[in-house]
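Troubleshooting: if your tokenizer reports a length mismatch, compare your output against this known-good record of 76 residues.
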Amino acid sequence: MTEFVEIPQPSRFRISELFRDNNFIVPLYQRNYAWGTNEVEDFWGDLLELVKGYRNSHFFGQIVTYKNEQGDQEII
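Known-good structure output:
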């Protein structure tokens, strides 16, 4: 008999809740992958436009984080 695996449901909340009480770092192993100064500035600008109400939606895709041994949230 096959056992079914319970699939977790993704969480849904506003992006402001994600950033409200968290500090994130982009670890060195990610920085050389695709995040240059232009990409970081573009991402930050998108966040500011949302927070200031200049736009009412934006698709960020997945944001994957990992809490490291020091308790910092790393953006993977």
